[in-house]
Design brief:
TIM Barrel
Length: 353
């Protein structure tokens, strides 16, 4: 992304899109009973509360009545239908992992089979987005956490839950990724890229150059360590610089890193994500902080910066919901990448009038 003069002036920025992740599949309800919805009605109401607080994108996972993460697509359909009826403009983003939480002690936290994940393209009603990881990778979500982050929870250091998430990996090989994007696009569901490193962004670019990924580059930089980038200013600057100007970039990290990284993103004209899936604490850890409180905090800060908050309709425009491209050339141009090299062409490639 090119930061020319005026790029840090709010009048030149998009309205802020706030993504909320209020379902926290890694936690058990006993970890934060005041804010982890379990019944279907409570899960629907949580989305409504988040939308009313200022979030225009909902990152969605589903729980069963026993509090465990659901792996039943029928439950996803039920939740999607309930939220769509109550918040028709909200962007519904299904977490592509489905539920990676271990069901019993001693199990590893893992994503479901390739075939099951492909079925996310068949959800009814259709979500606006499904998140996708690129390149199989370690996803040790507890690596950069400190003991105070998980003390007294089901992820406390030394517990089976801690060990399960420490050993988690992402299955996202090239054949599966290409097929998944193909199926999502065929059903008019937008792919939302959850990227850990620049190398994964480069893989997406190569797919676009080959014409197997003709979609807008709507992505999140997931800086959580454990196989992903660490949330520091150097990694952030490098990743932002690698993103083309036509992409739409959201910040994501975990625990007490969440607010500082989001503040950087807001000031830079990028977009933000919050919620108990990412963090459950106030910055001084004096108490746990609900997803709605986290949204309200970001709204206050953004207003202090003078940056408006995107409502559902504006967020759909910014995220290019419903947009798909017909060729590699169009995809590269719309996303802001340099064009493919033509046969015999020498030197660097560029678009000319």
């Amino acid at each position: 992304m090119n930061f020319i003069d005026g790029s840090l002036h709010v009048e030149n920025m998009q309205d802020l899109v706030i993504t909320c992740a209020p379902y926290g599949p890694e936690w058990m309800p006993s970890d934060f009973p005041e804010d982890i919805p379990v019944s279907m009605e409570a899960q629907i109401q949580k989305a409504v509360d988040c939308y009313n607080a200022g979030a225009s994108v909902l990152h969605l996972h589903v729980r069963e009545e026993n509090g465990h993460g659901s792996k039943r697509l029928s439950k996803f359909n039920e939740l999607l239908a309930g939220i769509r009826a109550r918040c028709p403009d909200m962007i519904l983003q299904v977490g592509g992992s489905i539920s990676f939480a271990p069901e019993t002690e001693g199990e590893t936290a893992k994503w479901l089979s390739d075939d099951t994940r492909h079925m996310l393209a068949e959800l009814t009603p259709r979500p606006d987005q499904v998140t996708i990881a690129i390149n199989s990778n370690q996803m040790n979500v507890v690596e950069q956490m400190v003991p105070a982050d998980v003390r007294g929870t089901s992820l406390d250091v030394g517990t089976p839950g801690y060990h399960a998430y420490r050993e988690m990996t992402i299955p996202a090989g090239p054949a599966w990724v290409e097929e998944h994007i193909k199926r999502l696009s065929a059903n008019k569901i937008q792919t939302h890229f959850q990227l850990a490193t620049i190398s994964q962004l480069e893989t997406v670019e190569r797919m676009m150059r080959r014409g197997v990924c003709n979609v807008p580059l709507i992505l999140t930089w997931v800086a959580i360590g454990g196989g992903f980038d660490a949330p520091n200013i150097y990694n952030l600057a490098n990743f932002v610089r690698a993103c083309p100007d036509g992409s739409v970039l959201t910040m994501e990290t975990s625990m007490l890193n969440t607010l500082p990284l989001n503040m950087m993103g807001m000031a830079m004209g990028l977009h933000v994500r919050c919620g108990i899936e990412d963090n459950i604490w106030t910055q001084d850890r004096s108490r746990k902080m609900s997803t709605v409180e986290q949204i309200e905090q970001l709204v206050r800060i953004s207003r202090e910066l003078g940056r408006p908050i995107a409502d559902g309709k504006k967020a759909r425009e910014i995220y290019k919901i419903g947009t798909f491209y017909g060729s590699a050339d169009e995809t590269l141009a719309k996303n802001g990448f340099a064009p493919n090299r033509k046969p015999g062409q020498k030197g660097f490639t560029q678009y000319v009038a």
